[in-house]
Design a protein that fits this description.
alpha+beta; two-stranded antiparallel ribbon; 6 strands; 48% helix; flat
């Protein structure tokens, strides 16, 4: 199987800009992007497109040399390259395109030089905002499971997309980071599914079966079925469909209700609000055929915020940014 990178096709006149600055051997090449103010000539555009293509070629060479596409570090190098190019073509004036590209090349150099082990940490490049701790923690758990061998590509790209989202948040707040958060959340769900289904062989220990997680989101200060963001119900339906397709059996369902940090009516009010939300989702699941005897719920009010939204204004933007905190986390616990 060969590695492709459709995003590098020159579809527009304004593309990425880079100059290859050799520092020693070819293996140690580093791609340097022109400052945004200098990205004005066809010559610079052409040179920098060559830089991106050269970096892509090094990833392809590693793949051709036997490192599989699903490999965590190869995947991460590819995803760093993808987000760098994506933001560059969107005329990102910050340091993000360069720093993301540099992260890709760091991994490439380590792989080319046979470094082992290669670090798995993920840099918050360009001082990207740390968003969605819940998603970071779910990815961290996968790293420690036998099923990681099957899920590593999705894990790597999920981590990079969370940084991508954090960079967008810093630049243009929640409205621009939201699509990349959704991409990251989808990658986390896909990674967990791959880890669960991973055939690690009869000699290996059985992989633990973690819960399937869905988040049902509510409008501000609301707790009824009609107040649920409709698209968030898709995560519940996908989870139920996954259980059916994997022929799994439910051991239980934990509903954990939450509220955002807006405490205009007090801590106790938010505790009650999160409880009512959990009760609403309980009825929703029963309506979808889940045995009520399997369902339990708890409520945590505003004590576990997954998105802080510090400095976001005006109020309407703040409330939208805080949406992931107004959730009921649905944990579908599966039998081995």
């Amino acid at each position: 199987m060969t590695l492709t990178h459709s995003k590098l096709r020159p579809l527009h006149a304004v593309l990425a800009v880079a100059v290859l600055a050799a520092s020693g051997s070819a293996v140690a090449q580093q791609t340097r992007l022109h400052p945004q103010a200098q990205r004005i000539s066809d010559e610079a555009i052409h040179a920098d497109l060559q830089g991106y293509e050269a970096t892509q070629g090094r990833i392809q060479a590693l793949n051709d040399g036997g490192r599989p596409i699903r490999d965590y570090h190869l995947s991460k190098a590819q995803c760093w390259l993808d987000v760098s190019f994506h933001e560059y073509t969107r005329n990102d004036r910050s340091a993000f395109p360069q720093e993301a590209l540099t992260e890709s090349e760091k991994l490439i150099v380590d792989m080319e030089n046979g470094v082992s082990p290669i670090p798995t940490d993920t840099a918050l490049v360009n001082n990207a905002k740390y968003l969605r701790d819940d998603l970071w923690q779910r990815l961290k758990v996968i790293h420690g499971t036998p099923g990681f061998s099957c899920a590593q590509q999705k894990v790597a790209c999920g981590e990079v997309e969370l940084v991508h989202a954090g960079n967008e948040f810093n630049q243009q707040q929640w409205r621009h980071s939201k699509p990349y958060i959704q991409i990251a959340e989808d990658l986390v769900n896909e990674a967990e599914a791959l880890a669960r289904q991973c055939d690690i062989g009869p000699a290996a220990p059985a992989a633990p079966v973690g819960p399937l997680i869905a988040n049902v989101l509510f409008e501000f200060d609301r707790d009824r079925y009609k107040d649920i963001r409709t698209y968030s119900l898709e995560s519940v339906d996908r989870a139920l469909a996954t259980i059916a397709s994997e022929q799994r059996e439910l051991a239980g369902v934990a509903l954990i209700g939450h509220a955002d940090r807006m405490q205009g009516k007090g801590f106790d009010y938010n505790q009650g609000l999160s409880q009512r939300r959990a009760q609403t989702v309980r009825e929703l699941l029963i309506g979808r055929g889940v045995d009520p005897e399997l369902i339990r719920y708890e409520y945590r009010g505003d004590t576990q915020q997954v998105q802080q939204c510090d400095g976001v204004k005006p109020r309407a933007a703040l409330l939208e940014c805080l949406l992931p905190n107004r959730r009921v986390e649905v944990q579908f616990e599966l039998k081995p």
